Amino acid sequence: MRRPSPEPPWMGKTYRNRHGRGLRRPTFGARLPRYRTRSGMFDDMVAAQLKRLGQAWPELVKPLQFAVEDVPPSDPLPWEDEPELLSKAFPAGHGIPPRIVLYRLPIQMQTRDRDEMQFIIRDELVSRIADHYGRRPEEIDPDWGL
User: Fold this and answer.
1) Does domain 33-140 have CATH number 3.30.2010.20?
2) CB < 8 Å & 24+ apart, contacts of 135-143
3) Which intervals carry biased composition (Basic residues) (predicted)?
4) DSSP β-bridge partners for residue 89
């Protein structure tokens, strides 16, 4: 009498890794900090600073759009003497609201740790918002530049 062949491992309820030693599962959970990428953490820091500024100055932050790009464009405009490497403000035009763009890689290259990166993000956002409205950065955030 012939016995039925066993099911392949992937058809069963549990299957082992390729060496047959343990169950396949991630080595760390999706909610742990290691799961976040550097770009995801940078976006979270920008969102936290925008939330903080939006609570303090909703009338200044609400009409602006904010974006994060990896690197600044490589060709500066003809009237720009020095390209701004960390962030750039774009004026409103043709139905598009004014925008502030932060460049992630230049900011990350200038910092050594998360705290320093948060300070640079805060300073860049505050200085761009202040430039847009013709105010001093200290009026918007008294801790600017510290």
Assistant:
1) yes
2) 140/53, 140/56, 140/57, 140/60, 141/53, 141/56
3) 15-24
4) 100
Find out whether 134 and 125 touch, Cβ atoms under 8 Å. Answer: no
pLDDT at res. 72: 85
Q: Is 94 helix (H, G, I), strand (E, B) or coil?
A: coil
pLDDT in tens, the chain (146 residues): 556 666 655 555 555 566 666 665 555 565 666 667 888 889 999 999 999 999 999 999 999 999 999 988 877 667 766 666 899 988 888 888 999 999 999 999 999 999 999 999 999 999 999 999 999 999 998 888 77
Q: Find, among 108, 110, 119, the residue nearest to 141 by Cα.
A: 119
CB contact at 8 A, 117 and 104: no
What's the token pair of residue 25? 């599962």
Count other C-beta atoms under 10 Å from residue 125's C-beta. Answer: 25
Which DSSP symbol is given to 36? S
Distance, CA of 39 to CA of 70 (rounded, Å): 9
Residue ranges covered by each domain of the chain = 33-140
